[in-house]
User: Fold this.
Amino acid sequence: MAITTEMIKELREATGAGILDCRKALEQAGGDYGKAVDFLREKGLAKAAKRADKEASEGTVEIYSHANGRIGVMVEVNCESDFVARSEPFRKFAHEVALQIAAAAPLYIRPEEIPADVFEREAQIAKTRALEEGKPAAVVDRIVAGRLEKFKDEACLMRQVYIRDETLTVEKLLSSLIVSAGENIVIRRFARWELGEHK
Assistant:
């Protein structure tokens, strides 16, 4: 299939990738738009991984109030330069992360931050539940592993499904910003408060 300028333009507008990258993605995908987007996302994840060791000490603290002041969120997002920190895409991303935290109430940024005792408690709950449901002993370990993965998906911000697009996780959203900004970007920390909650 011939790759047209219009196809390249459409893919470029949707992904923010360079013209040559878009052409290559469309060629690899045989002109299939969806496969080309996937190709660029995978390539973007690889680029993002290369930037992960760069120092990110600039950025912003985004403060967001939700549901007429019933939920408050503060999140620190860092990048490498003041130039990127002041850019519209970076500011928009920080705001979207604050919205995500308000809506999905994560407990941690990434799975490595889950304390061992919390993880063990979740494993025990999953095991007890599986046994109470009468699951065969041979499959209980697999069920527990699956439920622990689901717990990570719900409790860890980076693994959560992005509230505005179910095809993306927050991690993929972050990776695409790293690729377009050309800098390492890190969600450093966050706090979420809900009116009347007791911790």
User: Anything to note?
Assistant: The domain at 58-109+156-194 is CATH 3.30.479.20 (Tetrahydropterin Synthase; Chain A).
